[in-house]
Amino acid sequence: MILETDYKWFMFINEIVSSYPLIDVLMIFFAEYVQYAFVLLLFMLWWRNNKNDRVIVFQALFAFS
Asked: Looking at the domain assignment, is residue 11 inside a domain?
C-alpha cells in the first residue's frame, strides 16, 4: 500500500516536470544549494552559545554521520 502511494506521488511529480518552469528552477536551486544553508544554520546555532542550540547541533551531526 505504501509503495503504491509512493509510486503515485512519483508519477505525479514526474508528469508536471517542465510544465512549470519557475518551479523547476526553484527545485534545482534547492537541490544544489540547500546543503550549504544547512551547514550555515548549524554554525549559527553553535555560535549563539546556547546549551539547547548546541544540543541540536550535536544531534544533527550525529544524525548525518
From this structure: no
Angle at Cα 12 formed by Cα 6 and Cα 13, nearest 5°?
90
Contact assessment for residue 41 and residue 52, using Cβ atoms and an 8 Å cutoff? no
Count: domains in the chain: 1
pLDDT, tens digit only, all 65 positions of the chain: 778 899 999 999 888 888 888 988 998 999 999 999 999 999 999 999 889 999 999 999 999 87
Q: Say if 58 falls within a structural domain.
A: yes
Question: Is-contact 11 30, C-beta < 8 A?
Answer: no
What does pTM read for this prediction? 0.60
Q: Which domain holds residue 26?
A: 20-65
